[in-house]
Design goal:
mainly beta; rod-shaped
């Protein structure tokens, strides 16, 4: 088995062509980032390649693979179906893969526990997407009005005095002239237009409050909660 085993170590993004024929690839970073290990046969102990308890995401090109939390296919084991696993946290195997083999090569002699078949629903996964811009969007402008004492200039002063004296002689209470003033004010922020990036794709969303440097999204890149 060891003689036919092919193992490829590298850095994600630099050896994509070499991975075309791979059966299973594990990555150090979520979302297929960082160092990776690719194999087409059983590896009883990933520590031989300094990759034990390092994997956080995986991609299965062909076949079904059993990944276990301890060497020699012991501990907790899951079966990975063909497909992409941008985060092994969804199957409780984050940084917990110590050995891996094709399911077809599983032997009774290993006494591995019954594996759990991993069924990944991207909508149930959680990722941190990088926020690239945040823009507050204001609502419609509003009008603010108030009353203030009327300013009397030298031209209006004689008329104001005469009117005031007439009211006094007629027994009417004197009134101080007030005038209503109004102005347009900018509307309050209605929402924040947020641009974020997930797996190299730009997305937009409207939020009721400004986010931090990242927002939580699912495997489809849609905001959660």
């Amino acid at each position: 088995m060891r003689s036919s085993l092919k193992v490829l170590l590298g850095v994600a993004g630099l050896a994509l062509a070499a991975q075309a024929g791979a059966q299973v690839t594990f990555y150090e970073g979520e979302g297929y980032l960082g160092r990776f290990l690719t194999a087409d046969g059983a590896i009883p102990d990933l520590s031989l390649y300094q990759f034990d308890d390092r994997a956080t995401s995986a991609s299965v090109a062909n076949g079904r693979w059993e990944a276990c939390s301890k060497p020699a296919f012991q501990g907790r084991c899951v079966v990975l179906e063909p497909g992409s696993y941008p985060s092994l946290a969804s199957i409780q195997m984050m940084r917990s893969v110590a050995s891996v083999r094709p399911v077809a090569e599983a032997r009774v002699g290993y006494q591995a526990p019954a594996p759990v078949v991993a069924s990944v629903n991207p909508a149930d996964q959680v990722f941190a997407a990088r926020v690239t811009s945040v823009r507050p969007i204001s609502g419609a402008p509003a009008e603010r009005c108030w009353m203030e004492r009327q300013q009397v200039g030298p031209v209006e002063l004689p008329g104001v005095l005469l009117n005031g004296m007439g009211d006094l002689l007629a027994g009417k209470p004197q009134t101080t002239p007030y005038v209503q003033r109004c102005e347009k004010v900018a509307g309050a922020t209605a929402y924040w237009d947020v641009t974020y990036e997930f797996q190299g794709i730009e997305h937009h969303v409207q939020l009721s409050a400004p986010p931090g440097s990242t927002i939580a999204v699912n495997g489809f890149g849609q905001p959660r909660g």
